Amino acid sequence: MERLTLNANRCWFKSKDPAFARYSLAPELSSFSGKPRFLLVPKGQPEARPLLVVEGLRGSARIDTYGPLTSEPLGGRVEADLGRWTAGDNGCAA
Known about the structure:
With 94 residues, the chain is of the alpha+beta class. It has helices spanning 2-14, 73-86; strands spanning 23-28, 37-42, 52-56, 63-66. It has one domain (2-86). Helix 1 packs across helix 2. It is globular, with a radius of gyration of 12 Å.
């Protein structure tokens, strides 16, 4: 999950990708539940309900994604990026 979070931060936010300009990344990698995750929340509203949750299971390569953003057009892009990153490709492709 740490690698996925770093890729998301680098490819979606540090690159200033306009598709993600309305969002902020909120990493929660030190989870006592054994499910590290990162969230996308509305920019400037870190306490807001997450629009996307990307959650892993410690010790597993499996991830779950959920939240309202998954049913928006950007959801396909998110799934494609996460699929590549989960398979080991660290590249940013829009």
